[in-house]
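for the writeup, i need someone to sanity check this before i put it in the appendix. the sequnce is what the collaborator sent (i think, or maybe the updated version? ugh). structure was predicted straight from it, no edits. if anything looks off just tell me and ill rerun, i have time this weekend
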Amino acid sequence: MVDYQYSKKFKLVAMGRPIEQVKMRMEQEGLDPSVLDLDMNTVGFLNIPEGEEVKYPDGHVEPCCKPGTAPAPTPVAAVAFSASASSVTRKPAARQSMVKPKEETLAPRPKYKHEAKLRPLYWDVLTSKSVVEKSMWFQMNDRDIKLDTAMLDTEFTSKPMTFVLPVAEETKTSDVVNLLDPKREQNVGIAIGRLKVSTQQLHHALLFGDFSVITRENISQLVNAAPTEDEQAACLAFSGDEKKLSSASRFAYELSDIPMVAVRFECCKTIITFDDEVTRIRKIIQVYEANEKMMMNSTGIKQLMKLILAIGNYLNGESARGGAWGFKINLLSKLSQTKTADGQMLRRLYGLDPAEYAGCALYYPAGDMGVTELLLLRVQTDDQLETVQAAAQQRLDTQTNTFAGYAPEQYALCKDGSAIVIKGQDVMFVISADKDAAVRAFRAVHSGRAGA
């Protein structure tokens, strides 16, 4: 009897891999290559993982049990042993599965009900009671935020989408043979077109670890272009004219006689980039630790999280995502994907084209008497900072003049509750009774990003 890991080597030989290459690889891995001289139909395997099957060339499967349908354990005295010329097989007893205790979850918060169908905010809801109770979310009440629901209903209304089906183009017959799927053919063709070494040089370098050929400059392209196991199997099974192969298929074909080509390229990449990766990860850890301290001590960031939670719960309404106690932090990088129904408000209110900037978020009053407003905008060049600052100042002057003389509260808010803040490539314009909290949150978030 032999260990289960040898079954994979038998499988490679059955797929057409030259037995001498498989034996050479087994010697490198510390395995006994003479095992491949045995007849797989009579070889027994030990340590077969639960639920795994070994398929033999003659069609039978060992062991004949699948997860959830395993037979009852056989008493030791009744275990049948079958002897053959080269092995003894013993039926393994079924393992008793461990049942993980169910985690206690919190009931959702009260959900918003609204008539309009709004664009949802796709977040990962935190439901674990033990997780939420130990986090800032448990002490946070999103209903403390006074939302301008009329504006949200107007700007985030879900509009019906129409689709135009493409017309199938007539395919032309070609003598070129493609062993890869069309997308892989295109991607591999682009990658190898940039290489300055031949496939024969790569073949030799991959077998003997020649890092003068496999370099920092081309290793990423080689990893992306390396043939997968299925592609290697298709190449090994090809018996036609090699000259008719496409450039991408020929690249895969000429490398496929090397065992585990993709894994070898990945190992080369690890060796080449190891020191750089260590330095990069250390910097990430330092930034993470600094941002963690800032997050724990910043009231501005907690207020910002509460605002996002309130808006998200309103947009998600009575759906499964609504009534959330909290959300996973990965949502912050996806916020720009939730866009208003009308993307032209920046142009109408500020005279700016959103396509010319790296990012933009705009909150503005829906009613004529509303004045609370927030603009967050990231420029692409330093020259745009002056343009954005002038546009924000003009918007503030317009609002101030609009309410002068007949709406004293709105006029006072424009005078005392407004700010234009520039940090790096980011600009914030705000008119709000909570101006100071908004400014603190903006500066705190930007400081964390600057540390990165």
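The longest helix spans residues 261-297. Residues 64-97 have pLDDT under 50 and may be disordered.
thx in advance!!
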